[in-house]
């Protein structure tokens, strides 16, 4: 279903395209990258990609039955919600400044898409 439904395939292309734009490098729109999270990125780039892919998977799990309501704004809102939660947990667990700076960067990048 994740690859054979036209609406879902279009959604994955939008997700990987937006994440590629955020990262400044190509995130392939393949099952290996998007479902299994197999790609070679730096730690901070991987955090961005994994958070964005998790948001996409959450939306697909909730809205996979037709009629499909898989919009960019829903995905961005879910991505933003996950990012805010990650910032909260990083602060709660006294994460290092580098980690907090990475999450703040993600939050700032996401804000530009609204």
Task: Characterize the quaternary organization of these chains.
Answer: single chain
For the sheet with most strands, the description reads: none
- Class computed from helices, strands and strand pairing: mainly alpha
How large, in whole angstroms, is the Cα Rg? 14 Å
Helix content: 55-70%
Average residue-wise pLDDT: 88
Strand content: under 5%
Low-confidence stretches: none
Query: Judging from the principal axes of the Cα atoms, what is the shape?
Result: globular
The N- and C-terminal alpha carbons lie at a distance of 29 Å
Give the count of helical stretches. Answer: 5
Number of strand elements: 0
Helix-strand pattern: HHHHH
Which properties best describe this structure?
mainly alpha, 0% strand, 5 helices, 114 residues, 69% helix, globular
């Amino acid at each position: 279903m994740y690859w054979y439904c036209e609406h879902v395939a279009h959604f994955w292309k939008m997700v990987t395209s937006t994440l590629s734009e955020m990262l400044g490098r190509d995130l392939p729109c393949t099952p290996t990258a998007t479902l299994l999270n197999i790609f070679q990125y730096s730690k901070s780039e991987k955090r961005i990609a994994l958070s964005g892919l998790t948001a996409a998977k959450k939306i697909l799990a909730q809205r996979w039955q037709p009629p499909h309501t898989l919009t960019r704004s829903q995905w961005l809102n879910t991505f933003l919600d996950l990012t805010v939660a990650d910032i909260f947990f990083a602060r709660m667990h006294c994460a290092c400044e580098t980690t907090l700076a990475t999450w703040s960067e993600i939050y700032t990048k996401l804000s530009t898409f609204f």
